[in-house]
Design a protein that fits this description.
Blueprint lengths: L1 E8 L3 H8 L2 H10 L3 E4 L11 E8 L2 E13 L3 E8 L2 E13 L2 E12 L2 H12 L1 H27 L4
Antiparallel strand pairs: 1-7, 2-3, 3-4, 4-5, 5-6, 6-7
């Protein structure tokens, strides 16, 4: 199952990439939501090959996820590969500069089941595809707005 959306963000390409590659901030956000996230690589700086292990509650069960940053091409592309409960997912984020202060973010998630129970989960998601796609697009739009707000405040410290 594949989900795809795009958002235009009122910030420079570098600012958007900086927000997307704030891995420490994303780890803290996951911890606040009840996940236990551990970085498992030894890279000194963000880059290709970063890995994480996470456990989190979902539908009354603890789930485990292993994630790896497959592509880190600053400031244009990030590709994250993850395995969660028999589902392999690839998250691809591509950034295009539309103008000096406007960036288009194209985000896609491709989920592939590797086990029979995972196949059932993906099949049920396929049946509810429109509702899932609507929620996905709304969350990505809200995230894009938060990036815009962050950099608008940085430019105008009086607010």
């Amino acid at each position: 199952m594949k989900l795809k959306t795009r958002e235009d963000i009122e910030a420079t390409l570098e600012q958007v990439f900086e927000a997307l590659s704030d891995f420490d901030g994303m780890e803290r956000a996951a911890l606040r939501r009840g996940a236990d996230v551990t970085r498992t690589d030894t890279l000194p700086a963000p880059g290709q090959g970063m890995t994480w292990h996470a456990t989190f509650p979902y539908r009354n069960r603890m789930r485990a996820a292993d994630m790896m940053l497959k592509t880190y091409e600053a400031p244009h592309q990030l590709v994250l590969f993850s395995k969660v409960s028999g589902v392999e997912a690839t998250v691809e984020v591509e950034l295009l500069s539309l103008s000096r202060n406007r960036t288009r973010m194209i985000l896609s998630i491709d989920m592939r089941p590797k086990t029979i129970p995972a196949r059932l989960v993906i099949q049920s998601m396929t049946l509810a595809r429109n509702a899932i796609l609507r929620r996905f697009r709304k969350r990505i739009a809200n995230y894009a707005l938060s990036i815009e707000d962050r950099y608008r405040r940085a430019q105008d410290p009086i607010r």
